[in-house]
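# step 3/5: fold
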Amino acid sequence: MKQVKITVMKKVSHADLISKYENPLENPCDMEVGQIFISNGWEKPAGLCQSAWESMAEFVRGLSHGAENFYNGWMKNKKAVMISCNDGFRPVSFFIEVVD
């Protein structure tokens, strides 16, 4: 089984949606662009948001077991995926790739 590298690529914040629909939160997201996590393929890396993990776990497990070419050529690198967490107010994009 291969290790999988998870890199925080981008954070977006939809202030209009937050002000209209969300109750105030003290620490809504502490991910930082450029932050890197390494997964053994089945465990959430320490410090990675649980919600983000739930959005990417199946891809991480698949990549760690040799899956590739998700969605028929979606990615230039067939051993990688780009996934966003499921936070509709402030989604975070993660680049997920096999560590060779």
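# step 4/5: annotate
The chain has two helices and four strands.
# step 5/5: archive (pending)
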